[in-house]
Amino acid sequence: MEPGEPERFPEELADTLVGIQRLIRRRLRGGPTATRPRDAEVELLRLVEARPGIRVSDAAKELYLAGNSVSTLVNRLAEDGCLVRQTDPADRRAVRLRLTGAARDRLGDWRWRPAALVARHVDRLDRADRDALRAALPALRRLAVTLHEEAEEA
User: Fold this and answer.
1) For the purposes of burial, counting CB atoms within 10 Å of the CB of 42, is it exposed (0-12), middle (13-18) or buried (19 or more)?
2) How far is residue 75 from each of residues 41, 72, 81, 140, measured CA to CA in Å?
3) What is the pLDDT of residues 18-41, one digit of tens each?
4) Residue 18: how many CA atoms within 13 Å on its side-chain side?
5) What is the pLDDT of residues 98-126, one digit of tens each?
6) How far apart are CA 17 and CA 75, in angstroms?
7) Measuring CA to CA, which residue among 7, 9, 72, 19 is closest to residue 44?
8) Measured between alpha carbons, how far is residue 10 from residues 17, 24, 35, 41, 139 in Å?
9) How far apart are CA 149 and CA 82, in angstroms?
């Protein structure tokens, strides 16, 4: 890098990560997707799986979405038989969310497909590239944590 030239690494990293995610989504759309909800729905289901009984308002904060957007997602997923709404015994106005058995099964399928796609392509790389990707995972996870922390501060 020449003196005074802007550092391109952050831009290249962001573009690469976004591009990979976009390509994974496109490839998965080509398969059996009739039962796959939108990404925001999957994120909400994964959150409820990780935190059974989470309130809608807490889910909205965690996902950085407006409360009414999460309520819309909850309604759709409840209609589809993926979420159960339970009245919070401590606050009758609040609702707690739980996954249905069908949602657990679907989440397992939705996790498997992207992992299988990525595995096929990682297997096509040489050993040095596979090792470099594996070695980068801890740093990428730490990057995700700092992005999450900054979003919580905003």
Assistant:
1) middle
2) 11, 5, 10, 34
3) 999 889 888 887 655 445 567 788
4) 6
5) 999 999 988 887 888 889 999 999 999 99
6) 31
7) 72
8) 11, 21, 36, 29, 13
9) 29
